Amino acid sequence: MNFGKIITAMVTPFNEFNQVDVEATKRLIEHLIDNGSDAIVVGGTTGESPTLTTDEKLLVFKTAVDCVNGRIPVIAGTGSNSTKASIELTEQATKLGVDAVMLVAPYYNRPSQEGLYQHFKAIAETTALPVMLYNVPGRSSVSIDVETTLRLADIPNIVSMKEASEDLDAMALLIEHAPKGFTVYSGDDSLTLPILSIGGAGVVSVASHIFGNEMQQMISSFEHGQIKEAASIHRQLLPGMKALFAAPNPVPVKAALEMYQIRTGSVRLPLLPLTGEQEKVLRQTLEPIWTATYVS
To answer: Is position 90 annotated in a ligand binding site?
Structure first.
């Protein structure tokens, strides 16, 4: 299933009391829609899901569904390392009217490939919604093998993969052998153009909070055969993409949004805000991108 080219993995705005800020969430969603997002993921890693309570996740899901009002798909992050908890959250998210769910590989448990298969299968069977899998071995300490993904792709509503392994060979194999209609998205901003070149659908992005329209321009150039222009935009955006991961995600992107006059508040412990020096370096990296000639 195609959710568009750029899916933004959205941060969760907090107020001065470190509570979910509903009004700021609505403003952020409007910014993302205006800034090139074809879909959003809410309650995912970038949304600080490990520190959100179930009630807070449901609040974010409902706020997004109500605010978007059908304009773009809302993908709810309902995966965890507990199959039972993931099933329950997926059922609740389904009732709230989200358009799809994203299921991260179980972290900490380190299940076998058969365990991964049974985990995702059990969750997918509880909803009629499209399911996007999320392979991120750097965080989960387990990788979903291509063979396992292909088995899962035979389940009718498992329709997509967010692949954050940085393994383009594995992505190419998956794209080559996946059933028709199954889409593969990069989970790394810097691989947006490379994954398109091997047949991927696009990116689940953090950087699109800041320069989503520029990323859309890069993708459009590529799709229209303007390869040199697309590559040039990629090279210009790359320092910014890297800078947004110079500290644990989503610390830098929340700081960048503040610089962009989009208020999303701070992060929750155990994450810490950027230091003054880190903010200075981030601003120095992003400013040339904001003022580049290709920016619309």
So the answer is: no
